[in-house]
Specification:
Length: 353
């Protein structure tokens, strides 16, 4: 039995990381007078002043995570009445504008092919083709320690305990063939009608197998900004109808780069003696995502562009953004581990039971 690992909570379910997030959390957890609510838009503009890189800014990324969390209902302690509060929507919009600007600056979209199903699919397969050399998945398979595997699960929990939800925002925003393809993929993600096989639930079982807390948000305080940015980007794409092409492209790239790494991740856990109760999540994705990548490339992204040619650039931007940010997350983890450091932002708060 693996000893459980706990991370000491802050003064609230999620701790602040700067002036903006401190004000935001104070408003959301405060009394009925909503003191400070009107100050949030100006605080957001002030937080953006002089930021070196919004993707690595803890204050902004945790603020975005909380604001998006109001729509998911995934974070404890925030009432339903906040979801469409105008000042919060305005604050989110201010941060999103800067977030998108940084993504547009950073992400290199491949040359645009003809807006046909086959041409788009070929472009996506070329964009997501495996590359030789070091990778996070190979490191996990061959070298990661037990503590590093725990960190790996903690970092992934920000998305995976809500797996598929960001992409599901796109379902009512699509029509026809693309909508059918997306629903087919999401049906599998949510367990194909069997609640116990929901991928988020299988991942929660993996976390428990390593003695971790599977409550969503339990580890937000130790997750670095770049990992939060990865989740926030999916929420941003999914919640904005004008970016429906980007969320479709993101899902395509996400599925097309999943099967082989998950095989390696499962091997890493087996190497340290973990059984099927822990590796089930990764083994499930080896098979499922090998099927999903064809559906996502051809029937989702390709069909969407063929039916709505104006979304071609957006689809490829979303796919390239997925790969770019995933690379930054992997580079952060790899750099930390190669230098014998924790990949978490506050490892000293970690205690072992």
């Amino acid at each position: 039995m693996v000893s459980p690992v706990h991370y000491l909570p802050g003064t609230s379910a999620i701790g602040s990381r700067g002036v903006l997030s401190e004000l935001l959390l104070r408003v959301l957890t405060g009394g009925p007078d909503r003191t400070g609510l009107s100050e949030l838009p100006s605080a957001a503009r002030a937080a953006l002043t002089g930021v070196d890189d919004i993707l690595h800014d803890d204050d902004i990324q945790v603020s975005l995570l909380v604001l998006y969390g109001l729509h998911y209902g995934s974070l404890p302690g925030f009432g339903d009445e906040w979801e469409w509060q105008p000042e919060l929507v305005e604050t989110r919009g201010i941060l999103e504008k800067a977030f998108e600007s940084r993504l547009r600056e950073l992400v290199v979209t491949p040359p645009l092919p003809e807006p046909t199903q086959d041409a788009v699919a070929r472009t996506l397969f070329a964009l997501t083709a495996p590359t030789p050399g070091p990778s996070l998945s190979r490191y996990v398979a061959k070298s990661a320690t037990l503590e590093q595997l725990r960190e790996f699960l903690i970092l992934r929990s920000i998305y995976t305990l809500r797996e598929a939800d960001p992409h599901s925002w796109a379902i009512p925003r699509l029509t026809g063939r693309a909508k059918t393809a997306l629903v087919e993929i999401q049906f599998d993600e949510y367990g194909s009608g069997v609640p116990e096989r929901m991928h988020a639930g299988i991942f929660a079982k993996t976390m428990r197998g390593l003695g971790l807390d599977d409550t969503y948000g339990a580890y937000v305080d130790v997750v670095p900004a770049i990992t939060l940015a990865s989740q926030n980007m999916m929420s941003f794409f999914g919640l904005n109808r004008r970016l429906r092409g980007a969320i479709a492209g993101h899902l395509a790239a996400f599925e097309m780069t999943s099967s082989l790494p998950n095989r390696s991740y499962g091997d890493g856990f087996r190497r340290l003696g973990f059984a099927e109760d822990v590796t089930d999540y990764f083994d499930e994705h080896v098979e499922a995502d090998a099927v999903h990548e064809q559906i996502a490339a051809c029937d989702l992204a390709g069909a969407l562009v063929e039916d709505e040619p104006d979304l071609l650039e957006s689809v490829l931007f979303g796919a390239a953004a997925c790969l770019t940010i995933d690379d930054l997350v992997a580079e952060h983890i790899d750099s930390a581990w190669q230098h014998h450091r924790s990949a978490l932002r506050d490892p000293e708060r970690r205690i072992h039971a």
